[in-house]
Amino acid sequence: MPKAEALHYGDRKVYTVGSFNRGVADWIARLPTIWIEGEVTELRRHRGWANVFLTLKDPSDGSCLPVSIPRGQFDALRLDLVDGERVHVYGRPELFAAKGEFKLRALTIERFGEGDHLAALERLKKKLAAEGLFADARKRRLPFLPRKIGLVTGNDAAAKRDVITAVTTRFPSAHLVVAETLVQGPRAALAMVASLQEICAEGVDVVVLARGGGSFDDLLSFSDERLVRAVAACPVPVVSAVGHEQDTPLCDLAADVRASTPTAAGRLVVPDHAELTARLDAARTSVQRGVRRTLERRREQTDSVGARLRRAPLLLVERKRAALENATARLRVLSPSSTLARGYAIVRAEDAIVRSSSEVEPGARVDVQLAEGGFGARVEETR
Q: pTM (2 decimals)?
């Protein structure tokens, strides 16, 4: 940039507009980066613009300050700002020498005050809920006995120690894979998303996302939209154990299971080994009793069938004898001898049984058979 030099008209120094603007711009460029507070007005952005523009307004006296920030940097903040919101802007003042326009070149923007953060979180919560990220229908059950457990937490954090202690105490042979990452600050959300993806690539069956207690600002990363979406999209069930019982970051709502503390999360992901062993022993005893009862019933059934098989031939012979006697009695009743025994006789003429008086004539000789013996006779008359 050319140096700001004056023109000399006698004893008068005169600066051109360009020279003056460059001089002021050079002086302003030496000012430090600073934080400025104000209300957002005239927020302007366009897909084709490289920068996002807004105006900071002082609500006390109406003073205004133009602000610009690179569009990619603004989008990465995911603030969803609207006019009227109070913010803190960190940046460097500068003067655009060609037009003499003074503005603040922003490096980052933060909402001012917890109330503003809460309002933004509430808007994000409603947005994600409308997309179904918090729906109970998409929640998955935790595996009963995971082969490998993932833990995403801070480095040397009490939360890490609490989860590991709870898991190994309940199930000493549990296989834990730990991914240490940032859990606080502006880079924490993306760091946790990356750790979540990396640990899932290890083939874990369940993931615990854990952090101990902290202030509202300390836990803001766990309500970052990028992390919340990553938790919802995780290919395995996620247990969120962030803060204390009263803390409910948005990742708690997107997780498959929420644990009140990291210790509680450790108890949720594995069964109690002693209790499981006792249940297995009880089941083994029950199975053994069942097998013995079944064998006893089968033995009784076998003995009963054997006895029936031994009795079967005798019963068969008895039934056959009874049937034979019954048939004999019937034959005896139906035989001619039985008929003759009742006083009837059989009359034959020329070896043929006489069934009608027309078959013989008077004077014919006939033979009469009785029940006992018989005699010859001659027909005197027929009727």
A: 0.51
Strand segments, DSSP code E, in the chain are: 7-9, 12-14, 34-44, 51-57, 64-70, 86-96, 101-111, 149-153, 176-180, 206-211, 238-242, 257-258, 346-349, 352-353, 365-369, 374-378
- List pLDDT tens digits, range 240-290: 998 776 778 899 999 999 998 899 999 999 998 888 888 888 899 899 999
Paired with 41 in beta bridges are 55
The answer to whether residues 240 and 261 touch, using CB atoms and an 8 Å cutoff, is: no
Could you say which architecture CATH assigns to the domain 119-271? 3-Layer(aba) Sandwich (3.40)
pLDDT for 116 equals 62
Domain definitions of the chain by residue range:
7-112, 119-271, 275-334, 337-378
Tell me, which fold does domain 7-112 have in CATH?
OB fold (Dihydrolipoamide Acetyltransferase, E2P) (2.40.50)
